[in-house]
């Protein structure tokens, strides 16, 4: 993983304690007219997102970065900009992906517009409905894992009407600005601080 210079890996007890995170995994997209799988890389901070989709051979299909109300999308050798990531992605790719809430769902967290329909035996969300738009998005958590000391989904489906996203999280790393880690105690079993 390519961690930015000012961020360092840390361990957290819960995903919401991560000031930033980076994940690698796989994304399968199915629509009425299209079906494909891609590698997924996502670097998420409170102020910015960098999302990259690559082929199995490492060729970049799409690069979406947003920071402070400015989003840049690079695809097919062209660059597009907009103040809204969701609108830009829909305009260029035709996908109406819930790009603003995906970072929450990927880490097993819920937005204010989410309703838990079903929980699993450990009281984790199993089925969630996102009702801010109609038709509603449905999030199904298939399996969970522990990475960077925190529990988060391993496999989830996000569906609405004729679009289905299958997301597999292979690696997830909590990150913290380097200046913040000096104030935290180190984890007794690692060189990484615990937040």
From TrEMBL:
Belongs to the LolB family. It comes from Shewanella youngdeokensis. Its main location: membrane. Transmembrane segments: none annotated. The keyword Lipoprotein applies. It is found in: Cell outer membrane. Monomer. InterPro entries: LolA/LolB/LppX, OM_lipoprot_LolB. It is a lipid-anchor. The lineage of its organism: Bacteria, Pseudomonadati, Pseudomonadota, Gammaproteobacteria, Alteromonadales. Keywords: Cell outer membrane, Chaperone, Lipoprotein, Membrane, Palmitate, Protein transport, Signal, Transport. Gene3D superfamilies: Lipoprotein localisation LolA/LolB/LppX. The gene is lolB. It holds the Pfam family LolB. This is Outer-membrane lipoprotein LolB.
């Amino acid at each position: 993983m390519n961690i930015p210079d000012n961020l360092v890996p840390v361990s957290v007890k819960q995903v919401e304690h991560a000031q930033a995170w980076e994940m690698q995994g796989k994304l399968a997209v199915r629509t009425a007219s299209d079906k494909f799988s891609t590698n997924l890389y996502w670097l998420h901070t409170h102020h910015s997102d960098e999302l990259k989709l690559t082929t199995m051979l490492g060729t970049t299909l799409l690069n979406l970065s947003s920071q402070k109300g400015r989003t840049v999308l690079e695809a097919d050798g062209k660059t597009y900009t907009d103040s809204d990531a969701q609108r830009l992605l829909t305009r260029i790719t035709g996908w109406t992906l819930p790009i603003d809430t995906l970072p929450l769902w990927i880490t097993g967290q819920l937005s204010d517009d989410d309703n838990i329909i079903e929980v699993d035996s450990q009281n984790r969300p199993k089925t969630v409905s996102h009702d801010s738009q109609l038709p509603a998005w449905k999030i199904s958590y298939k399996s969970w894992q522990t990475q960077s000391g925190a529990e988060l989904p391993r496999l989830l489906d996000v569906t609405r009407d004729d679009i289905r996203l299958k997301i597999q999280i292979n690696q997830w790393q909590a990150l913290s600005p380097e200046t913040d880690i000096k104030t935290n105690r180190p984890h007794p079993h690692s060189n990484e601080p615990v937040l």
